[in-house]
Every structure is written in C-alpha cells, then in structure tokens.
Specification:
Layout: H1 5-11, H2 17-30, H3 34-42, H4 46-60, H5 81-87, E1 90-95, E2 98-103, H6 108-117, E3 123-127, H7 130-140, H8 148-154
Parallel strand pairs: 2-3
Antiparallel strand pairs: 1-2
Helix pairs in contact: 1-4, 2-3, 3-4
C-alpha cells in the first residue's frame, strides 16, 4: 500500500499526527486536496507539499529504462528538443490519447507544470534514472552544449 502524503510530511517533521488527522477531517467535509488543506490550515509551505507529493508519486509510478522502452514512431513531434532538456522529459508513446513521457523524480514537478500548461493533450509520467534520461536525450533530442550536468542542475533536490 502506498505511503500517504501526511505520513511523508510527518516523517519530514513538517506536520504532527494530530495535524494530519485534522486535515483528514477537513478533507472529508470539503473533498479538497490534502496539500491545499495543509497549506491553508497549518501554513505548510508549497515546497514541502511538493516534496511529499514527489515521494508519493515515486512509490506508485511505473519505472522504465528509457534506453530500451519501445517508442512510437514520430513521437518527437509532440515535444521539442529544447522542451525535453528544459523540463527533463522524454516522450515515449501515445496511449489512450495521452502523451506518455519519462522523467526523473527530481524533474517531476517541472515536467508536470510543463505538461499542464503547454501541451495540447493530456500527459502522464513514468519514471527513469537521471543517467538514462540524459543518455536518451543525447541520442534522440541532442542539443549542442547540453548534457547530463545540465539535467543535474535543473533537478529538484531530494
């Protein structure tokens, strides 16, 4: 069973168990996202919520090796080379009209913001390692001067 966001926030020392219970009570009454309620009720910073969300997503998301996963022909047309490097994403396929892209845990928040604000179709993410992502981008979306060190510099710290 996946770890709940509240458990991650307690582990980080951001919330107490009693505060988690209060948020869950409020959530049952108004059906709003846990993170939003944590921010509103207890002043939890959005960055802490984002870190907890990433940890939760890492537990439940599919992990792939982008160097061996089959890709749809022509998938590159959906995301430019610059966008791949800027947001740490690697397009893989279209599935149920959604663009499936790989990213790393450290790039997940940026990738999600990119997908929700720029792409013209829904997207979802699978996870891969930073080294594999860099190698795949170099092979399929090369931009002179960009390499693994660029990806490392744009990743969210764990």
């Amino acid at each position: 069973m996946p770890t709940l966001m509240g458990e991650f926030l307690v582990d980080q020392g951001v919330l107490t168990g009693e505060q988690v219970d209060a948020i869950l009570d409020a959530q049952r009454a108004c059906a709003r996202p846990f993170g939003v309620l944590a921010e509103e009720l207890f002043g939890i910073c959005p960055e802490a919520i984002e870190r907890a969300w990433v940890r939760q997503y890492v537990e439940i998301a599919q992990h792939v090796d982008v160097l061996t996963v089959p890709r749809d022909p022509g998938i590159e047309r959906h995301v430019s080379n610059r966008q791949c490097w800027q947001f740490g994403v690697f397009p893989i396929r279209i599935e149920n009209n959604e663009l499936v892209m790989a990213t790393t845990p450290g790039h997940l928040p940026r990738a999600l913001r990119f997908a929700s604000s720029v792409l013209e179709r829904p997207a979802y993410f699978v996870l891969t390692s930073q080294d594999a992502l860099a190698q795949a981008l170099n092979e399929h979306h090369a931009i002179p001067g960009l390499d693994a060190s660029h990806l490392a510099s744009t990743a969210l710290a764990a």
